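Margin note from the TA: students keep mixing up input and output lines. Inputs are the sequences; the output is the structure of the whole complex. Example:
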Amino acid sequence: MTGGERRSFLGRWWYDRRVRALFLQLAAATAIAAVAAWIVETTAAHLAERNMSAGFGFLRQHAGFVIGETLIPFDAQDSYLRAVLVCGLNTVFVSLFACVAATILGAVIGLGRLAANPIVHRLASLYVLVFRNTPLLLQMILWYALLQALPPVRQALSLAGAIFLSQRGLRVPSLEAQPTVVLAAVGAIAVLALLVSRIGPRWRLPVLIASLLVGAAALSGRIDMNVPVRRGFNFVGGLEMTPEFTALFAGLTLYYAAYIAEIIRGGILAVPRGQWEAARALGLPAWRVMRHVVVPQALRVITPPLTMEYVGMIKSSSLGILVGYPDLFWSVSAMIGQTGHAIEGITILMLAYLVPSLCAAAAMNAFNRRLLRTSAA
Amino acid sequence: MTSQALSGAPPQSRWTKLGCRLLAPLFGTRGNAALSLVGLALIGAAAPPVLRWALLDAVFTGSRDDCQAAAGACWAFVGEKLSFFLFGFYPPELRWRPALAVLLVATLIGVSLLPRFWRLSLLLVWLAGSGAAVVLMMGAPTNQWGGLPVSLMVTLAGVLGGMPLGVLLALGRRARELPFIRLACVVWIEVVRGVPLISILFIVNVMVPLFLPEALTPEKLSRALIAYALAASAYFAEAVRGGLQGLPPTQEEAARALGLSYWKAMWLVILPQALRTAIPPLANTVISFIKETTLVMAIGLFDLLGTVQLAARDPQWLVTGTEGYLFAGALYLALCAAASAYAAWLERRPLRTI
């Protein structure tokens, strides 16, 4: 019965898991390659039709557009590359400030939700309910609309004659110093931080106070405070926070604070009751229980999701384009609109946003591995 | 004489006792009293101006001139523009069509939420129902579609298109014997989740016409639907992965030992358990996609938020649109809160044993 033998030989192959796996993967790889080849071919045909060449050479051309607000100078004569860098800096700037502000606000609200006090508890819960369940973009556009409803510059709301709130956004006094002074101050703070972490707890407070006094003395006269002044239809001097920046910053901060509040609340609730009771039984005062027993344990639970929220904030800062803030996404889409180099532009965009995401993912994996090691030890 | 008077304690009326019970949690200790005062001060500072703006000084019916004269909110604007908020540029005399379509789909969603209807025939009902809804919408060209139907379609594309894709991606990611497929799934999931959703929308909108021959290029709304389904697949995959990781490997081993094929083992044993564990992250993903449908504004489509923003720019009304945004916000709040309440109910529901 040769036929039966051949069937069983084929059958052995057909039912061998390794052969099947190989076959399945070859099929998948072929399909992906075929789709990719088709896409590349049609794209090339489209590009040829429009007389365009692929490549990043166009980044050196003059951008020709003006950027509404920048941290470092930018001129329409500058290149696309500089435009993308300038706007990338804007993304970093707004994300960084929003991360810090949202963490502080989130911690306050998260602790508020844990409070026994019914008023504080209900207010914090209401905040989380409202801000988590409405779209971030809607919140941003609402803040922008409210800023537009503020009085014009002439009737600006002012606080102590130094902080002004008007249709033109928020104006606050700024501190100005020579770059060398700033560098020296940053260096001194780094050295001090290292020093404080090494010396014993008894000496920490005196060292801190002494260095604050020395620092204030050294900096006095070297730093100027630039207070905004109303002149004509606008302000001069000070730090300008435009309505676009304020709407984006407020939107990110208030929305993510609700998420961070829930993460912090969850982290503190994850510390077993026995830990609290044992610390109390040792006679530690409430804040020391928090500082030495609860927070270190809660941080392990809080850190991974908190990092994901930070990455989410960086990604969400791209919504700035919809309230008119010139961030990275805005500059790349403006560049694509002008030059038509869509593929190159999108490559830049994806790389720029993937770097923080993948770094955070790698850091969290390392953190989890370390945690597993320490808890096993 | 009562024993209370003899013992020397001051007589307590019922009212004092009630007062103590009410006030003790608020002013029991010094710290608590301070917290209460801060809370009350916040309420006291915010409530009167908000109430005055939203209710006392507000204009509920009337014209633009009434609103200009009043200091409060202009709810008349919301009333006047309501049908534009909901249906966008759809021709007014044909607005019964999108209204009926929304009603039909809402009923379908309502029915699908009840576990007793979870069977394969529901899929056929969905096919028929969504087909009928699309036919109803076809009364006007797609560039006139807007408002609620667009929000609903984009959400459904994300959830109904992304969920099955996400399950497949999650299964692919844990297929140890298929390293190439596994790698492809990991790359897809991490890249899509790593970039902002708005950029995926933008990429699909800009790149699809470049990639595809012109004859095959779908119009803008379909491109948005594709973008949402593709983006949602990665987020759903991550949610399902958590559920799959929580299952002991013995479940799959036992199912395979009983002679079930891979797909039968997944469908009958693994997925029912994994998806149940994954309800909270799945619900979060659904809710975040309900909220993120607002991003379609970036490619020039008008969802509920887009129509409100457009209405706010109407020079005839001279409004900032705050009232419209609050209205849309209340709608989203109700929808998302209901979705998370439903998810909590689903999670608590006892497992039906066979």
